[in-house]
C-alpha cells in the first residue's frame, strides 16, 4: 500500500455517483407573446413532444385574455442520468388588448415558489422537499420590431431580481445575418439603458485552455440568442437528414451555427450552465427573497416580542408559522385598535377639561 | 307640371336606333381619359401595422422608389398618423400619392384606444370633402382629395391566427375604408403553415363579420383575374429594396444563409399579386368604391345627424335647398332669440345698477343735509353764547361805569363827607385795585373789533377767559395804556 496515497481524490467520483442516483431537477419558464415559437423551441431543445395536443385560442377569445400559468413536467433520461424537467408556460402574455400588469401573476408565481421552499426549509421534516423554484426564464423577443418594446421593458424590470433572465429572439429566420447583428446590438443597448440585469455567464477561470475561453467569449457576445425551432426532420438526401424548416428558397437547419444560435442556447442551457443557473437561483435570488422575508417578519417581531417569546419557548428553532398575509392583517388591526384607544383617551381628557372649566366658571 | 313631364319622359320606352354611319362618339372614353391624364390622379394609402413590420419597406418596393423615412421607435405614447405626399410620374401619367402611416400602433401596453386616432383621421378627411361639397363657391375639380382609398392592414406572421388588436381594429375600420389584409414578413412561414394561416385568418374575419375589400368581378375584362385573386387573400408579401444577383441578373431579394427570397418570384411570395391588384388593375375601382360607398355612407350619417331628411312628413321629395333654408331660418331665429334674451338681461342689469346708484346718492344727500343741519345748530348755539357773553360784558361794563361814576362822585363827596371814607377807601382800594389792571374812565371802553369771529369755546367760562384775553389785546383809542 502506498503510504502517500490518502484517497480523497476519489471524491469527485463519489459525488458523481451519488448525484446520478439522486437525479436532477430543473424548472424552466418561458414567457413572451404568442406566435414567437416558444413551444416549438422547447420541443426542439429537449427533443420531446411536450406540446403535442394543445389547442390555440381564437383572436376573439383573446381580447380580454388574462394570463394563466401552466406547468408541464416530464422525466428525461440520458446516459443513466435522470432529469425531471418542469416547463412553466405563460399563455396569454401580451395577448389581450389591454395588457397593463399582465405579468403580475408571473411575479406572484415565482414568489409563491420561493415562499413554499422557504417554509419547507424552515420546517421540521426536511427529507422530501420538492424544489419548485424557477431556475431560468427564457424571454422571447419579437424579431419583427426594432428592439425592445414597452411591454418587454416592463416585464423584464418586474422579474429581473427574482429569476435568471435569458433573452432570446424567437423566429429568427425572419432576419438576415446583418439584421440579426443590428438587432442584438440594439437590444443589448436598450437593456443597458433600462438597467435590466439579465443572467451573466460566469467568467471562466484563467487556467482553462484557450479553446474554452474563446468559446466562452463567443457565447457572451451572442446574447440575446437568435433561435429557430423545429420538430420536423428534413431529408434532403438519403444520408443527409436534419432538423429544420423548408422553404421554397432553401431550408433552415436548426442545428447549424451559421443559420441560428440554437446550438449555443442548447449548449449553454443544458450542457454547461444548467447547474450554474440553479446555483445562482439558490444563492442570489432565493437568498434575497429570504432576507426580505425575514426582515419583514422581524419588524413585526420587534413590536410583539412578548408573544413571540412565549412561542419560542415552545419551539426553539421554529419560526412563527403564520402565513405572512394574516400576520400583516393582525398587525394592522393592532395598530388600528391602538389608534382608536388613543383617540378615546384624548376625547375623555377633553371632556374632563371642559367639565372642569364649566365647574370653575360656575 | 315639370315633375310629371319628367316622370313621363323617364318611363317612356327607350328605343334603340341603329346608326347609318360612323358618328364618332366612340371616342368619348378617350376624351375622358385624356382629360383625366392632364388633370393627374391622386391616390391615398393608409398603412396600419405594428412598428417594424415592414410597412415602409413594402411601400418602397411597390413603387420602386425610396420614400425618405427614419426607423420608428417603439416608445410612442399614443398612435398618431403621419401623412406624406409624393408626386410620381410614369410615362405621361402624374400620380399624387399620399402615404399615411399609423406610427406607434401596437406598441402601448394598453391598446384599448389604439384604433381611435385612425378612425378619427379617416372621418376628418371625409368631413373636409363634405365641407368642400357643401360650399357655395366650390372647386371640386381642383380639390386635392385626401380621402383614404385603401387601407393595407399588416398582419404579424405568427402562424396561429389574428391578434386581438387586429380584430378589434379591423372591425372599426371596415365600414369606413377598403381594407386589404396583408401578411407581412412572409418569409418566416413555410408553405404548409401559410396555407393553414390564411384559412384561419379568413374564417376568423368572416365569423366576426369583418368586411374586407373584394376585388370586383362584374367587369368582364378583369372578372376572371379578380376572382382568382380573391381566393388568395390575404396576400403574403415580402418587401426588399436590396438587390441580389440571382443567376445572371440583379433582382430585389433578401439574402439568407440558407437561400435567397426573391420578391418578384410568384412561388416565393404574393408580392406580384398584390402589385397587380392594387396598382395595375383596381386602383380606379378602389377610388370609386371610396367615393360611392364609404363617403356616401359617411355623408348620409352626418346629414341625418344635422337634421336633414330626404322626405318631409308629407312624403313629398324635399330639396336640399329648402331644407337648408328652413334650417337656416331656424338657426337665425334661435340667434335672434338669444340676442333678445341677452339684451333683456343687459337692460335689467343696467336698471338694477341705476337704482342702486340712486339709492346711494340719496343716502349721501341725506347725510349731507343732516350734517349741514347739525352744523347750523352748532353755529346758532355758538352765536347765542356769544351774544350772551357780549351782553354780560356790556352789563359788566355798565356796572363798572356806574361804579366809577359813583366813585368819582364819592371822591367829590369825600371832601364834604368824611363819613364815606370807608366807602371811598373801599372804593379807592377798589380803584387802586382797578388801576393796576384795566384803567377805566369814560364809558368809551373799547371792546375789541366789531367783527368778532365765533369763538370755538366749549363753555361760557372759557368764553369769558377768551374775551378777557381779547380785551387785553384790544386796540385802544384815546391813548389808554
UniProtKB/TrEMBL annotation, chain A:
Specify the protein name.
Septin
- This chain's source organism reads Gopherus evgoodei
Q: Which Gene Ontology biological process is one annotated for this entry?
A: cell division
The entry's cellular-component GO terms read:
cytoplasm
Q: Which UniProt keywords apply?
A: Cell cycle, Cell division, Coiled coil, Cytoplasm, GTP-binding, Nucleotide-binding
UniProt lists the family membership as follows: Belongs to the TRAFAC class TrmE-Era-EngA-EngB-Septin-like GTPase superfamily. Septin GTPase family.
Q: Which Pfam families match?
A: Septin
Which residue numbers mark the site Important for dimerization? 144
Q: Name the CDD domains on file.
A: CDC_Septin
From TrEMBL, chain B:
PROSITE patterns given for it? G_SEPTIN (PS51719)
Which Pfam families does the record match to this protein?
Answer: Septin
Key words, A-Z = Coiled coil, GTP-binding, Nucleotide-binding
Record has Nucleotide-binding as a keyword: yes
Q: Where is the composition biased (Low complexity)?
A: 408-417
**Coiled-coil residues:** 321-406
Domain (Septin-type G) ranges: 39-305
Q: Which domain of life is it from?
A: Eukaryota
Which stretches does the entry tag as region Disordered?
Answer: 408-435
Molecular-function GO terms, alphabetical:
GTP binding
Tell me which family the UniProt entry assigns to this protein. Answer: Belongs to the TRAFAC class TrmE-Era-EngA-EngB-Septin-like GTPase superfamily. Septin GTPase family.
PANTHER family reported in the protein's UniProt record: SEPTIN (PTHR18884)
The protein here is known as: Septin
Amino acid at each position: 500500500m502506498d503510504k502517500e496515497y490518502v484517497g480523497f481524490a476519489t471524491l469527485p467520483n463519489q459525488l458523481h455517483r451519488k448525484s446520478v442516483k439522486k437525479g436532477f431537477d430543473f424548472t424552466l419558464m418561458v414567457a413572451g407573446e404568442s406566435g414567437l415559437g416558444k413551444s416549438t423551441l422547447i420541443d426542439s431543445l429537449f427533443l420531446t413532444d411536450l406540446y403535442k395536443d394543445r389547442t390555440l385560442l381564437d383572436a376573439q377569445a383573446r381580447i380580454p385574455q388574462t394570463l394563466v400559468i401552466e406547468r408541464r413536467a416530464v422525466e428525461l433520461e440520458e446516459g443513466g442520468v435522470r432529469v425531471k424537467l418542469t416547463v412553466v408556460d405563460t399563455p396569454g402574455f401580451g395577448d389581450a388588448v389591454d395588457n397593463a400588469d399582465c405579468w403580475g401573476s408571473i411575479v406572484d408565481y415565482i414568489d409563491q415558489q420561493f415562499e413554499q421552499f422557504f417554509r419547507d426549509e424552515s420546517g421540521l421534516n426536511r427529507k422530501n422537499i420538492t424544489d419548485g423554484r424557477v431556475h431560468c426564464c427564457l424571454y422571447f423577443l419579437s424579431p419583427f420590431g426594432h428592439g425592445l418594446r414597452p411591454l418587454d421593458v416592463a416585464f423584464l424590470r418586474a422579474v429581473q431580481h427574482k429569476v435568471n433572465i435569458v433573452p432570446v429572439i424567437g423566429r429568427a429566420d425572419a432576419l438576415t445575418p446583418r439584421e440579426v447583428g443590428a438587432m442584438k446590438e440594439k437590444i443589448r443597448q436598450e437593456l443597458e439603458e433600462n438597467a435590466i440585469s439579465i443572467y451573466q455567464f460566469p467568467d471562466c477561470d484563467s487556467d482553462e485552455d484557450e479553446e474554452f475561453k474563446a468559446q466562452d467569449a463567443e457565447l457572451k457576445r451572442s446574447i440575446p440568442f437568435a433561435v429557430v425551432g423545429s420538430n420536423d426532420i428534413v431529408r434532403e438526401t438519403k444520408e443527409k437528414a436534419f432538423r429544420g424548416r423548408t422553404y421554397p428558397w432553401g431550408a433552415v437547419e436548426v442545428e447549424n451555427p451559421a443559420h441560428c444560435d440554437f446550438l449555443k442556447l442548447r449548449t449553454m442551457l443544458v450542457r454547461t450552465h444548467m447547474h450554474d443557473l440553479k446555483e445562482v437561483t439558490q444563492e442570489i435570488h432565493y437568498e434575497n427573497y429570504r432576507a426580505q422575508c425575514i426582515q419583514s417578519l422581524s419588524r413585526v417581531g420587534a413590536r410583539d416580542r412578548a408573544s413571540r417569546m412565549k412561542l419560542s419557548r415552545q419551539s426553539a428553532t421554529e419560526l412563527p408559522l403564520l402565513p405572512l398575509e394574516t400576520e400583516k392583517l393582525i398587525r394592522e388591526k393592532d395598530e388600528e385598535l391602538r389608534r382608536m384607544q388613543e383617540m378615546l383617551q384624548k376625547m375623555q381628557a377633553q371632556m374632563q377639561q371642559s367639565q372642569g372649566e364649566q365647574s370653575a366658571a360656575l | 307640371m315639370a315633375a310629371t313631364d319628367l316622370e313621363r319622359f323617364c318611363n317612356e320606352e327607350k328605343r334603340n336606333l341603329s346608326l347609318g354611319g360612323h358618328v364618332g362618339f366612340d371616342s368619348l372614353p378617350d376624351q375622358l381619359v385624356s382629360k383625366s391624364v392632364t388633370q393627374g390622379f391622386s391616390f391615398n394609402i393608409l398603412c396600419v401595422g405594428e412598428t417594424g413590420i415592414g410597412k415602409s419597406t413594402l411601400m418602397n418596393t411597390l413603387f420602386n422608389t425610396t420614400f425618405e423615412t427614419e426607423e420608428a421607435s417603439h416608445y410612442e405614447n399614443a398612435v398618431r398618423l403621419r401623412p406624406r405626399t409624393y408626386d410620381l410620374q410614369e410615362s405621361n401619367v402624374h400620380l399624387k400619392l399620399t402615404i399615411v402611416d399609423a406610427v406607434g400602433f401596437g406598441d402601448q401596453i394598453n391598446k384599448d384606444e389604439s384604433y381611435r386616432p385612425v378612425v378619427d383621421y379617416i372621418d376628418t378627411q371625409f368631413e373636409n370633402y363634405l365641407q368642400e361639397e357643401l360650399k357655395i363657391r366650390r372647386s371640386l375639380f381642383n380639390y386635392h382629395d385626401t380621402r383614404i382609398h385603401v387601407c393595407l392592414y399588416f398582419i404579424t406572421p405568427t402562424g396561429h391566427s389574428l391578434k386581438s388588436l387586429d380584430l378589434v381594429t379591423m372591425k372599426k375600420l371596415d365600414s369606413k375604408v377598403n381594407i386589404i389584409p396583408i401578411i407581412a414578413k412572409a418569409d418566416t412561414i413555410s408553405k404548409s403553415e401559410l396555407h393553414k394561416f390564411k384559412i384561419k385568418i379568413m374564417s376568423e374575419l368572416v365569423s366576426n363579420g369583418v368586411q374586407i375589400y373584394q376585388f370586383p368581378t362584374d367587369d368582364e375584362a378583369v372578372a376572371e383575374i379578380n376572382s382568382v385573386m380573391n381566393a388568395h387573400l390575404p396576400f403574403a408579401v415580402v418587401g426588399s429594396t436590396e438587390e441580389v444577383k440571382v443567376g445572371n441578373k440583379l433582382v430585389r431579394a433578401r439574402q439568407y444563409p440558407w437561400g435567397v427570397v426573391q420578391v418578384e418570384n410568384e412561388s416565393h411570395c404574393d408580392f406580384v399579386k398584390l402589385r397587380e391588384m392594387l396598382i395595375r388593375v383596381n386602383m380606379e375601382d378602389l377610388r370609386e368604391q371610396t367615393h360611392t360607398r364609404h363617403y356616401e355612407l359617411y355623408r348620409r350619417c352626418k346629414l341625418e345627424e344635422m337634421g336633414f331628411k330626404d322626405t318631409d312628413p308629407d312624403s313629398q321629395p324635399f330639396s336640399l335647398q329648402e331644407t337648408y333654408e328652413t334650417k337656416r331660418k331656424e338657426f337665425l331665429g334661435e340667434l335672434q332669440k338669444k340676442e333678445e334674451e341677452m339684451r333683456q338681461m343687459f337692460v335689467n342689469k343696467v336698471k338694477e345698477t341705476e337704482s342702486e346708484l340712486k339709492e346711494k346718492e340719496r343716502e349721501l344727500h341725506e347725510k349731507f343735509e343732516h350734517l349741514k343741519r347739525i352744523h347750523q345748530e352748532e353755529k346758532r348755539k355758538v352765536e347765542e353764547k356769544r351774544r350772551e357773553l357780549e351782553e354780560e360784558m356790556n352789563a359788566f361794563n355798565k356796572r363798572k361805569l356806574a361804579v366809577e361814576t359813583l366813585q368819582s362822585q364819592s371822591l367829590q363827596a369825600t371832601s364834604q363827607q368824611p363819613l364815606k371814607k370807608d366807602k371811598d377807601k373801599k372804593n379807592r382800594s377798589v380803584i387802586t385795585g382797578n388801576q393796576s389792571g384795566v384803567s377805566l374812565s369814560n364809558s368809551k371802553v373799547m371792546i375789541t373789533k366789531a367783527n368778532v369771529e365765533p369763538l370755538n369755546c366749549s363753555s361760557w367760562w372759557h368764553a369769558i377767559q377768551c374775551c378777557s384775553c381779547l380785551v387785553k389785546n384790544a386796540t385802544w383809542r384815546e391813548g389808554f395804556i
